[in-house]
Amino acid sequence: MMGNWDDLRLFLAVAREQSLSGAGKLLRLDPATLGRRMARLEKTMQAVLFVKSPSGYALTEAGVQLLSRAEAAEQAMRQATADVVVPSDQLAGQIRIGAPDGCANYLLPQVCARLVADNPGLDIQIVALPRVFNLSRREADMAIGVSAPTAGRLVVQKIADYQLHLAAADSYLAARPAIRTVADLQGHRLVGYIPDMIFDRELDYLAELGMTRVPLASNSVSVQVNMIRQGGGVGIVHDFSLPATPGVTRILTGDVHLSRAFYLIRHEDDRRNLRLSRFAEALAQGVRAEVAKLEAIA
Description:
Elements: H1 5-17, H2 20-27, H3 31-45, E1 50-53, E2 56-59, H4 61-80, E3 93-99, H5 101-106, H6 108-118, E4 122-128, E5 142-145, E6 154-169, H7 170-175, E7 190-192, H8 205-208, E8 216-217, H9 221-229, E9 234-238, E10 248-251, E11 258-267, H10 274-297
Parallel strand pairs: 3-4, 3-5, 7-8, 7-9
Antiparallel strand pairs: 1-2, 5-11, 6-9, 6-10, 6-11
Helix pairs in contact: 1-2, 1-3, 1-4, 2-3, 6-10
């Protein structure tokens, strides 16, 4: 006996997260409740599915076998709804997007607000994390990345290029020695990423400038921007963030100009999912247009 789909959905989360707490966060379920559901599933299956220890939940041989069958059932469920068309050709249902927090803070809110306004039956969840998303573990339906992954069963689509420059608060610039050349930066505080928490080499901006000491650092782009806005120092900012940060000015634009790209990343199994494909195209168009609009007024 394989159990019902809801039990299998919970089982997949626990198997992928290898813990009740991690799965509970994804499912928004209390770990104790989730533990009872897994115990009930083991009773139904008449098999021990997990080896429980302080370090987490590891699959037994029976659990590994069920995982394979549950993943096949999951894909069948996703495919069964792939070609369902919502009346009026609108998008509906829940879609979760993983994104780096710069994109999640300065682009996705307005893009997703417009998509939901145009599709009242659509629910969008934005998960902003300063790391790479694991689509194989179904942490999100799709993700936006700053580099194109080369491993895994993934479909990758370039969305748009975006530009970055050095910037500082007007108040900081007024109170400190003038910055006319890159060499002048040696006398100024830098704001940037925590070096050992840079999750993608494309984000190692300051290394390109030969700068290693970062007095004010964060793994979050939005925190860095706020440090700069508060007069903390000089840092690399996305041009598309500047319209939302009045009082911050780009500097050395002729000497320091970085270009990066956003990529939309999906699991290969979702290639034939009509609903997700339509949403992905609308999302990509929206992000592309928003980058162009904000950079034009930066």
